[in-house]
Write a structure and sequence with these properties.
15% of the residues lie in helices and 27% in strands. It has 93 residues and is of the alpha+beta class. The longest helix has 14 residues.
Length: 93
């Protein structure tokens, strides 16, 4: 996996679990010093994400996030890592 894709994967993992901003109120960042957050994709309330799968093929730059409580999934476009966004969401009625 390339370094950019690894960084994007790490950033998506960090942001997929929490809807709150990464920076604490006191201005200090929490987490590992060797991880750089490239973008933040709010996905709702904490603990509503159950799993994350990211494409290994670089021609398909997408992450798939499965959801708990609102059973379904979201597709996140990672073509521009600094501007990652949800491009599709599906929920079971």
């Amino acid at each position: 996996m390339s370094r950019t894709l690894t960084t994007v994967f790490t950033a998506v993992c960090l942001t997929a679990s929490y809807a709150a901003p990464i920076a604490a109120q006191d201005g200090m960042r929490h987490g590992s010093a060797n991880v750089e957050v490239i973008s933040h994709v709010p996905l709702g309330a904490p603990f509503t994400v159950s799993d994350l799968d990211i494409e290994q093929e670089l021609t398909r730059p997408y992450a798939y996030v499965s959801r708990m409580f609102e059973t379904g999934f979201d597709v996140i476009d990672l073509r521009d890592p600094r501007n990652a966004k949800v491009i599709y969401g599906w929920r079971i009625e």
